[in-house]
Specification:
Helix content of chain A: over 70%
Distance between the termini of chain B: 54 Å
Largest sheet of chain B: 2 strands, antiparallel
Strand content of chain B: 5-15%
Radius of gyration of chain A: 16 Å
Low-confidence stretches of chain A: none
Mean pLDDT of chain B: 82
Strand content of chain A: under 5%
Low-confidence stretches of chain B: none
Number of helices of chain A: 5
Order of helices and strands of chain A: HEEHHHH
Strand order of the largest sheet of chain A: 1-2
Oligomer: heterodimer
Radius of gyration of chain B: 21 Å
Largest sheet of chain A: 2 strands, antiparallel
Distance between the termini of chain A: 37 Å
Number of strands of chain B: 2
Helix content of chain B: 55-70%
Number of helices of chain B: 5
Chain lengths: 177, 118
């Protein structure tokens, strides 16, 4: 386990949560569920880049954020929320490896596969969250699931397209000279 | 878990991820003739001029009607232009899509920036 990868994930995820709070807090549907959720995008990128270490970093950052910010003092909600948030993308990553043949080196990661992973992560995390909410007998399960899926997908697309835009300022491989 | 073991692994993963990100779908590029058509559509839109498919086909400098028809179809599929209804149901107005307008906004910004630097 590379500690630096875990720390890098925590830093990136923490920063993205802060950015999301600044720009999209007003789009919250209910506490913790928004119409745009940028950290969903960094979840995907960190999981693809750091795999297991990324998942651990996501777990820690999500738990800290849930326990101290979103649901202060609620250990159970914080733990379940962080597990759903971190395990969902990692499960999608494992499924992509098994079913899509995605290599851990990412050498066969095509834009189409990346988009599939984005949709998969945007569905997995809300599903896991709402599985817990269903056990907990929460109300508004269907609407919450839909908003969380849309929020995660919108956030993921915003992050990946911002990354694509940022990369356009760097020389493309093979065109460096 | 398949955590990369060497720092080089992370860099190589990053390169692959960057390559996939660069390839994400966006507004597809136009060929030179399509760019000329786009400029004509943009000018007509700006001046609120009538511009139907037939009007475009009347412009001989753009090539044969078949070539023009192919290009207009291609530009519609790529998301640069759209055909909207007019009061005459037989005539469709060629207009820029929102994505094409954003492209022109971006070009304008680049021009302004270049003008400032010169």
């Amino acid at each position: 386990m590379n500690v630096y990868m875990v720390l890098a994930t925590i830093a990136i995820q923490g920063l993205m949560m802060a950015v999301n709070e600044v720009f999209f807090q007003k789009t919250e549907f209910v506490a913790g569920i928004g119409w745009v959720y940028l950290p969903a995008g960094t979840r995907l990128l960190c999981t693809l880049l750091f795999s297991g270490a990324g998942a651990i970093g996501l777990l820690i950052s999500a738990w800290v954020a849930c326990y101290w910010y979103y649901f202060p003092g609620d250990v159970v909600r914080g733990t379940m929320g962080s597990i759903a948030g971190a395990i969902g993308p990692y499960l999608v990553y494992l499924i992509a490896q098994r079913w899509l043949g995605l290599r851990s080196s990412l050498t066969n990661l095509t834009p189409q596969r990346l988009l599939l992973c984005a949709v998969g992560c945007s569905a997995a995390s809300p599903l896991l969250h709402h599985l817990w909410f269903a056990v907990h007998k929460d109300e508004h399960l269907a609407s919450g699931l839909m908003v969380m899926f849309i929020g995660d997908l919108a956030g993921t697309l915003l992050v990946v397209y911002t990354a694509k835009w940022a990369l356009s300022f760097l020389p493309a491989p093979g065109r460096a000279n | 878990m398949t955590t990369p073991k060497r720092p080089a692994d992370i860099y190589l993963r990053f390169l692959q991820l960057a390559e996939a990100l660069r390839g994400l779908p966006s507004l597809p590029a136009l060929d030179p003739l399509e760019e000329r058509i786009l400029a004509i559509v943009a000018r007509a839109g700006k001046e609120d001029q009538r511009l139907s498919v037939r009007d475009m086909m009347g412009r001989k400098e753009l090539g044969s009607p078949a070539t023009l028809h192919n290009r207009l179809t291609s530009m519609r599929e790529k998301g640069w232009i759209m055909l909207s209804d007019t009061e005459d149901t037989r005539r469709k107005q060629i207009e820029l899509t929102q994505a094409a307008l954003l492209h022109f906004d971006k070009l304008s910004k680049c021009l302004m920036q270049a003008a400032k630097q010169s």
